[in-house]
Design a protein that fits this description.
The complex is a heterodimer of chains A (about 450) and B (about 475). Chain A is α/β, with parallel strands linked by helices and about 450 residues long. Chain A has 11 helices and 20 strands. Chain B is globular, with a radius of gyration of 22 Å. The chains are: A alpha/beta (about 450), B alpha/beta (about 475).
Chain lengths: ~450, ~475
Amino acid sequence: MTSALNPAAVERIGMSEPEWLRERRAHAWDVYERTPMPTIRLEEWRYTNLKKKLDLNSLQLSDAEAMSDDASTWPERLRAAMDEDREASGHIVIIDGHVVHADVDKQLATQGVILESLQEAITNHEELVREHLATDAVPAEEGKFAALNAALWSDGIFLYVPKGVQLELPVRVTRWLSEAGTAYFSRVLIVAEAQSQVSYVDEVLSDDFESQTYTSTAVELIAREGARVQYVAVQRLGRGAFYQSMQRTLAQRDSKLDTLNVALGASVTRVDLNARLLGPGANSDMLGLYFGDGDQHFDFNTSQDHVAEHTSSDLLYKGALDGASRAAFRGIIRVLPGAQGTDAYQTNRNLLLSPESRADSLPNLEIEADDVKCSHGATVGQLDDEAKFYLMSRGLSLIQAERLVVLGFLGEVLAKLPLGGVVDKVTRVIEQKLAQHG
Amino acid sequence: MPQNETIQDLGLDEYKYDFVSETEPVFRAEKGLSEEVVRQISAHKEEPEWMLEYRLKALDVYNSKPMPKWGGDLSSLEAVLDEIYFYVRPQEQMERSWDDVPDEIKNTFEKLGIPEAERKILAGVGAQYESEMVYHSLREEWAAQGVIFDSIEDGLKNHPELFREHFGTIIPMHDNKFAAMNAAVWSGGSFVYIPKGVSLDTPLQAYFRVNQERMGQFERTLIIIDEGAQAHYIEGCTAPVYTTESFHSGVIEIVVKKNARFRYTTIQNWSNNMYNLVTQRSMVHENATMEWLDGNLGSKLTMKYPSCYLIGEGAHGEIMSIAYAGDGQHQDTGGKVVHVAPHTTSSITSKSISKGTGRSTYRGLCKVHKGARHARSNVECDALLINDTSRTDTYPYIEIEENDASVGHEASVSKIGEEQLFYLASRGIAKDEAMAMIVRGFIEPIAKQLPLEYAVELNRLIEMEMEGSVG
């Protein structure tokens, strides 16, 4: 409990909410209180020392009024990020925790597609939200931070795609944070019914913060039979930010539920991603990309749980680290008893660009079925001299050659999920970061 | 002799080490671990005062450390330890001549084939029975060149300075709970010194036998390979099968000095009621090479991660391991390579087979410290699963603080393919035989590194274990 994060705050946030939700928040706060703060003695937190990295006592909750739904009043960088890719099935804009704008293609709306703020969804689609919010995917019981989020979330996104409806263009969410020293809690809930199809891109931006600013998001993704879901998170926060995202994907029979986490900004990034393959034929591709410089710290904690037979998953996380930045990857493939016919792969590759950078990798396997194909690989290394030499022999300078090799290295991840706009945007940001290298 | 007969002679139709010898120990401490027991051990060994103090301090460290929560299931270990005899002295003194070893003990080792092996190929042989080395011998020619191959107790008595310079420096008592336990109650094990430039062309071998029920064995081995020297040390471990659990916790400290080369081979075939928790570590100096060849076939639970600290420029470390986990067994093994100096290289190759309800776990660390420029390391783990109740895990830790390093890890898990079996069946090979063939092929890259008699034994064991593994 702190002066800002306490039962009174939980009560205040839930004041006008239905009884069931207030109870859920109160329960989550109980779990939070009961659960000890993770330390580096826990395998999951081995590489991020919260004592040093996060000071919950210093954080306030946001008291900003919601901005108007008038784009001309929004921060310039947020608008620029939106302008880079206008094409979308719908938009949501979140500024300092408030959803200030939501739109969805009219034709899709008539087909029953719902894209709105979570707060509105509680009123408009109470039963759907009640069924899925913090129940199956990221309940409070997941851990200390999942509980804190479930108690204190202020708003979020609800996306519902009815049976058989296919969205041609992605749904785009753009977030902006501006209050230094604030803790933001939000949630994303996506339910894709049978045979539906949807892509979702969630981008978060800010300037640098003078004091630590914390953002926590719980992401719940549900793909029913034969549905196809792509989830992309692009994190471009300024220094001083502690970005935490807790994600779980539930893939039912024959569904395909893919994720891409791009982490470029923030001082600390912590992503927990658990993919559950629950029905035969389910498949998840899990992609990750990070580029660190300065004293940035990245920590990815992933798991691939093969619960049903004949499921497959393929994970590829790649990162380049410059300056004194540091990345940790801890991934686990679990094949549960009876999950025969599993194909599961996991690869983490790190490129160290400077003498002070550091990478830790811990790819794990726990296999309890025998008819499986599983493998994992991890590498840490420096730029390939031969590739550099080749490019230089073609007239490129050393710095140009290095940039090209890094882009090629990271490009492999983007090539696997070629979502319009995202590839260009991420490539541009990496190029900006690379321009400072060397 | 035709090869078939050789295999038959090994008689591995059952766990062939399951026999009990009727020996009366000359002294047995009270069961359980206490200060009294530690004092008795030290008194029996007529140790200098500093060693008694060291042991007592280690006992405090042991008591202050919690049971590890990772690795295998140690939840019932504390109860087991209360019932175990930490020190059993089988005879009054260690013998140098095989003829002087008491008959019952001699017969035990004769059944294990030791004197014969010694005559054939070995540079030296040591044998530990319960808590003490009962026999140690070294060929004249090597002794004449200054090679020391002795019990650890005689190492302390006869070479106090060399002993004290290294003892407990590679694995300090604080390292882990079981290293602390060993430091308190160690008894038996080898003391080896290979002088500068001396190359042993045949291996030194030590046999470890636990005979009595509810016995704890805590051997302590210290090996110093001086500059430019070369040697190979082999240890083998067996025990009878009892219904109660036994306990073995060794500490093996190794120093490989500049330009030296050393290989340490373990064939662990403890009975399936043995907890086997061992700490093995080597310090590898400039341009030296350390190789661990680790075979874990027996025990109920083994937790053992041989390690190489590459502290001199150009040092090389290699760990090759085979684990076999049958019904009820858990092999939690692997290796650690820690790169401290520049231009150091290492490789870990691990192969495991899990059958029935067996579980094999690879747990390893590859660490490159800041300043270990141009370090190179490669880790490869392959696991084979025989039944749908078998389990395998892989936990490789990779921690890199130096950008000028190159580290790779790969692991794969598979079962024996239907196509492979079908192909062999089409060639007229029965399914059991085909399974054994495939498994032999799987472990071959490591098995071929073993001394011949162990390679043959391993293959025979695999063959036997594969019988009836397919319906």
